[in-house]
Input
Amino acid sequence: MALDRPNDLNAFWMPFTANRQFKKAPRMFVAAEGMHYTTAEGRQVLDGTAGLWCCNAGHKRPRITEAIQKQAAELDYAPAFQMGHPLAFDLANKLVDMAPDGMAHAFYTNSGSESVETALKIAIAYHRARGEGSRTRLIGRERGYHGVNFGGISVGGIVNNRRMFGSLLTGVDHLPHTHLPENAWTRGQPEHGAHLADELERIVALHGAETVAAVIVEPMAGSTGVLLPPKGYLEKLREICTKHGILLIFDEVITGFGRLGSSFAAEHFDVQPDMITLAKGLTNGVIPMGAVLATSDIHDAFMQGPEHVIELFHGYTYSGNPIASAAGLATLETYREEGLFERAAELAPYWEEALHSLKGTRHVIDIRNMGLIGAVELEPIAGQPTKRAFQAFLDCYEKGVLIRTTGDIIALSPPLIIEKAHIDQIVDTLREVLDALE
Ligand code: PXG
Output
């Protein structure tokens, strides 16, 4: 790959990356197709992570590529405020059609982080629009990831994403995370931990329900290492929120679009939230786009006052961008045409068996899975957390498999087009790498 200037790697300050390590030994992808990336050296690397949990239909899918090309040549951009274009409406209709009952409106953003900020703001403004302006408190969860903007890191529960950034939102509480040692080696949803939802009652009792706007959780926490909801936990959260008039937001940036073998986690767990945040798989990761789905009750609370007045003072230059909308429509069509969510559900038992066959492999202290998602947790090197898993990541990459690590947890989330032979390759490579690792 041609990079001419001596500081060619220096200028780009890379996100969530060990910049100095990377720039000493860069890992560059130059092409992708189906289940594979091609490196700058011409090697094929099997994508075990769907990019960053986003390329659910795999790479370079013709329908999506063509839709983007066609749209760019037809209507490249249209103002997002006070003007419209048909594709954004078409996509919103398709999204609410495939979403759980009750989701009736879609508000567009450009990322998961923006979807989270949007949902939090809508929650607070919704209560205010209904004359309950004292409801401003937001409740997140330990080990939750809701993107990197100020609202998201405030309700999020990851210390490194919070500690460097000064004062965060005030009026935020956190539920305890649900990752319990007694659930180790669980296949699918763990048995223990539904009682942790009762902590919400404690927080509400402390502050008064009339001060609480919303609870936001990932139905399954992805970024902090695939933490599954204990049986009965999400149901209990729903029940307590309903009892106290608190909105329940499911952050489905990762769990949306087939990852668990259903369209959304809300459908998978049969628990109805008031809002759903989306991004990633919405456009197969190809063009930035996110969305917040909301009920009619929420939307309609804003539809008052003179009709010429803007109802919600919020939005982005690129909300519902035409090319992103075209990519979204083509992505949904690809999922539907190829039955990819059903495929994920069908492959899930094979995936589960394969992953759990790593039990007994060196360094492995826990394995968890659901749908086409999995985690292999490693014993950290004493005094050097994250080092062992990062080395596993580097070694797997050298052996032609892309994995993700978070702390000492290996997280796997392949494109839903994966074949059984690819699953075997991922697991065999991991076994080989872990066995050889110090
Ligand atoms: N919510 C959730 C649940 C997420 O997983 C975001 C919000 C933010 O999305 P944006 O589009 O602003 O990045 C995310 C993003 C990883 C990893 O490897 C996870 C995410 C992003 C990048 C890497 O765990 N999640």
Q: What stands out?
A: The two ends are 33 Å apart (CA to CA). Residues 52-53, 111-113, 116, 145-147, 218, 222-223, 251, 253-254, 279, 404, 406 surround PXG (CB under 6 Å). The chain has a mean pLDDT of 97.
